[in-house]
Design goal:
The chain is of the alpha+beta class. It has one domain (8-107): HIT family, subunit A (2-Layer Sandwich), CATH 3.30.428. Helix content is 28%, strand content 19%. It has helices at 8-14, 54-60, 62-79, and strands at 23-24, 28-32, 40-46, 85-87, 103-107. It has a five-stranded antiparallel beta sheet, covered by helices on one side. It binds guanosine-5'-monophosphate (5GP).
């Protein structure tokens, strides 16, 4: 298994960059996106730096991917009405800029949005 290069999210996991942790479990943390694209825009990430994108995560540890979805559901209930959109950008040409797998949890007033 290759280790992802150090990313800004690796520094958030290690504490080098401080964030308000909205949820922390043994394997996952969640925090507000610095540039929100929706009324609720939270990033849910695994603590491990082993996976650059959701494809790698799903292949290697589907249980950890399921935990990310479960944490997203909890956050959508706490911060919105429980409904949510979960986005994984997979690859630079899909808009991925941080190569430490992360889910964008978008919620709150999304009915006007695309997709
Ligand atoms: P991507 O484009 O890789 O799917 O998403 C990366 C996300 O990370 C972007 O939405 C960006 O706003 C967010 N982001 C980048 N750097 C930081 C940071 O230092 N703190 C927080 N909270 N979010 C960040």
């Amino acid at each position: 298994m290759h280790m992802a290069e150090e990313t800004v999210f690796g520094k958030i996991v290690s504490g080098e960059i401080p964030v308000e942790k909205l949820i922390e479990t043994e394997r996952v943390i969640a925090f507000h996106d610095i540039a929100p694209q929706a009324p609720v825009h939270i990033l849910v990430i695994p603590k491990t730096t082993a996976y650059a994108n959701v494809t790698e995560l799903a292949a290697a540890d589907p249980g950890l991917l399921a935990e990310i979805v479960d944490v997203a559901q909890q956050l959508a209930r706490e911060h919105a009405d429980g409904d949510f959109r979960l986005v994984f950008n997979n690859g630079a040409n899909a808009g991925q800029t941080v190569f430490h797998v992360h889910a964008h949890l978008l919620a709150g007033g999304l009915t006007e949005g695309s997709l």
